[in-house]
Structures are given as C-alpha cells and as structure tokens.
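Example record for the data management plan.
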Amino acid sequence: CATEGGRIMMEGEYNSMSELHKLAPSFVPEPYAWGISKIASPVTHFFLCEFVHMENELPDPASFCARLAEVHSKSVSPTGKFGFMVPNCHGKILQSNEWDENWASFFTNLLLSFLHIEPGINGPWQEYEQAFKTIATTVIPQLLGPLQAHGRVLKPSLVHGDLWEENAAVNLATGDPVVFDASAFYAHNEYELGTWRRKTIKFGRPFFNQYLRNIPPSEPVEQWDDRIRLYSLKFNLAHMIGWPGAPFVREEYVLPVAWFLCITASNFQRIYDDLQYLIGRYPGKPLT
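Corresponding structural encoding:
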C-alpha cells in the first residue's frame, strides 16, 4: 500500500507484474488487482497479488538465470520501442519510461531523470553532477550508440527493472525461483544486470556467468563490461535517493563515473589505471 504518489506506484507495479507473469507464471506471482482503499485515511492505494510461501534465500543461479533469460528472449514490445505502457516507479522514484525507438536516447533520459532528483536530496556537488552530464553527452553515444549502428537491431526486452536479492526468493512449495516488486519496462536486456555490479548486491559472478550461458553479450561484445558498468550508474543513483545522508555513498559510486571520464581529481586517484585504460579505448577525451 502507498499514500503519497501511491496511484502511480501501485498501478505501475500491477502492470509490471502482469506483463512479467504472462511470460513466466511460475516465476512471477499472479497480480490480482490495484485500487484505492475504501476505509483508509488518508487516501491509500493498494496492489494485491498471489500469496507465495517463500524462503528468503538466494535462488540457484542456473535456474534463476534460465528463467530470467527466457523472459528477456520471449518478450515482445507492443510498440517495437523501448519503454512501458504506463508510468511506474523504481522504489518510490518515478522513472522516465516514455516510448523511444533509440536505446541510447531512452537510457540517457532515464539516467538524467534520476540525476535531476538526487542532488536535491544529498546536496549539490558540481564535479559529480558535471561528470554525469559528460556521461550523457560523451560516453553513452560511444557505448550504447553502436548497439543500433552498422545494421544492428537491438530487441527491446521486458526487464524486471529492480532485480536484486531483496526482490527474489525461492518458492517453498516448488523449489523454483520467484521474483516480485518489479518496475518493468522494455529495455536492452543487459540493463537488467547493471544492479548486480554494485558491491553490496549478492548476485555476483555465478549469476553473470549463468546468464551469459543463456544470452551472450550484444555486439560489440568487447564493450559488454563497459555497458554493465554504465547501467550500474542508474541503480547507484536510485540507491543514493533511497538512502540519503550516507556520507560514503557518493564517494563509493562516483568512482564508476570517473572510470568513464578522462578527468582526474583527488577522489579519483585510486582508479588511475582504469582511467588510462579508457584514454586508450576512447580517444579524444584527454585526462585533465
């Protein structure tokens, strides 16, 4: 249930879970309804779904990733574009999900929509904000543009959108993996893995390996790790919005930003080797 902003959250989750359940009914609890409570005050919106008796433990990586890859592979965007049919939220955060045929453009808008919110919660930081803007104008075209260049076709895949260990479990009745609390939209399938790169997330290397056994990296393959690092930035921003005031958070998550940018400052010295690597890989962005 939710009060302030509850309609978008509950309607968005209902539609997210409905689209996922159509593709994988044993993987996703069946959504029943969303609406407004008649007895609650203030006005309270609700989302109701199937009850599943779950064990709060990590699912088997092979089974979990096979189910997830099946959703990504079988899903078909109703418009042929990236986006979703209704507004929805990542946690409490309204995310930009308007239909767009260009994935680089879609992800840029999504990332910047979170950046627009975060400094108002944790305070301004000019270097940090400029770094993200440079990501949008310089790095994204180089990393995501090639996915739809040179005749390549990038399939919009339905993603869960917030897939970490707190939104996944094991069905005690069947032993199968189950996922919930979705903020779905049609995206590049690799976007789903961005949150797994975060240091605190338990979906580690075994999950990456199993997923790639089902769906190999998109072309250009050599940019796969770079893309996952890029996608993780959106999930890091969401974490900073959801858990404001933690002084270490930006210092930890600003490093991947610097990894992409050929800039240096005292906060970025620890990843100097990564910066040198990027200078060679992405020429034209001098270290200053």
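Summary line stored alongside the record: The chain has a mean pLDDT of 84.
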